[in-house]
Amino acid sequence: MPVPWEAVLPFAIATVMISAAGTLFSVSQRFQNLGKPPRYGIDSWDEMMMKRDKLLTGHVRGQSVSIPFG
User: Where are the bilayer-spanning segments (predicted)?
Assistant: First the structure.
C-alpha cells in the first residue's frame, strides 16, 4: 500500500504546531513557578506554607530562611 505523500506535509505541520504549543505551555508554567514543576495534591499544610512563603518572599514558590525587615 503506497504512502499518500500529499498528506505528509499537513501531518507534519499539525505535529509541529501541537508540539510547539505544548512546549510553550510547559515553559510558561515553569516560568510562573520560578522554574519548578507544578504542585499536585496540595493539602492544608502546603497551603499554610505557601501563605508563609508569600509573606516572606513575595511569591508562593519562593523559599527563604531569613526574615525580611519591616
Answer: 7-27
Residue 15 near residue 23, CB atoms below 8 Å:
no
| Per-residue pLDDT at 4 | 86
Residues present in the chain in total: 70
Q: For residue 67, what are the contacts with CB-CB under 8 A and spacing of at least 6?
A: 56
Reported pTM: 0.61
Going from N- to C-terminal start, the domains of the chain cover 1-32, 42-70
Sign, CA torsion 50/55/56/57: positive
Helices (H) and strands (E) in the chain, counts: 2, 0
